Amino acid sequence: MINGTLFATALVLLAPASEAQADPSAARSAAQVTTIWVDAAGDDFDALASELRLRLPLLEVQAFEPSQGVMPPGPGELTVLVRVQSEPAHFSVAIIVSDGRAFDRDVSVDDGPDPSERSEQIARSVANLVVGIDAGTEPPDRSDAELPGPVPLDEPCPECPVCPDPEPEPPPELIPEPPPEPDSAPVVSPAIELGPYVSIGAVTGLGEPAAADRFAAWGGTLGVATRWPRGAVLVAELRGAGRSHADGERIVRLRASLGGGYAWRPPASRAELDVRAGVAVEPWFVRSDAETVRFSNTTRPLVGAWSRITAGYRPALGDARRSVRIGGYAELAVSSAGGVVEVVEADEERMVSKFRAGGPELELGVQAQFWFALPTRR
Known about the structure:
This protein is mainly beta. It is built from 5 helices and 18 strands. The chain folds into 2 domains: 2-135, Maf protein (Alpha-Beta Complex), CATH 3.90.950; 188-377, Porin, CATH 2.40.160.20. The strands form 3 sheets. An 8-stranded antiparallel beta barrel has the order 6-7-8-9-10-13-15-18. It has a 5-stranded mixed sheet with strand order 2-1-3-4-5, covered by helices on one side.
């Protein structure tokens, strides 16, 4: 929306003076929509307003009251009135802009949708139309519309052209107001999100040793992430992984990690793309018959780094402050314990490779993450 406004402003500044004066729509494009007034007769205003704020977070959404009318915008600003008329199989949207432009749309919907889905469909259509209006790409149906002003409550009586002035009432007795009480519950607004998550994946070894099985381990990860409003993410997690051999022995790997990254959420979308990287320490050991196998040489933990990309769908849970992201991820990790770990066993004729760990490894899996906003003082 902001890019569209800046582009339209640049066109006005670069055009000749005569053309800018002859086209009044070019002058209007410099203004930006800041407030949406919603007249949603027959629909849940709170649900519709929540969906609009989710898709147009930079705009202020207000409920339209006929008795109060629409407040005029400030300099360089535009105000939009959205009137929604719903029918079982369609809904019509009428949008009036404070500069006189008007837009009428009729959208068909599926019969009998859930109220929340209907509010989502209406909000999606309104948001797309408002973005087009703000960018100047949506042609108006009319250009002489006016925003409604406040409706007077006391109208003159029809019997006489001029009603008599009422008798003045005596001034009320002045009673001193008590001092205001301190706010016990300050107003809060979401600023930082906390997101615990769980994932399951399989680890594949890349490169040497060539004789070892490529399948290194499979397991799960428990972690928690903190996301700031602009998208920066800090994470801490613990992964448990391993695999078994045909003789009953199994390798166990426990990895502790710290990292950071960026979680990108496209505007007016429920998708999320998460890119993270971090460092890790991973102790490992081999178990056989409920006992830990001891080796002739000292076993050191794996130390390394990893990078991961996760893409998923993030539907809201009840309101915009809570959501859950479900998606898949791919991780590339490099670790070493003085080299790649290979557990081998001496056979009668040759050395048999049983387990591998470390070196370059690729992990693929699925992840579920729950996001909820932490309240902060405003």
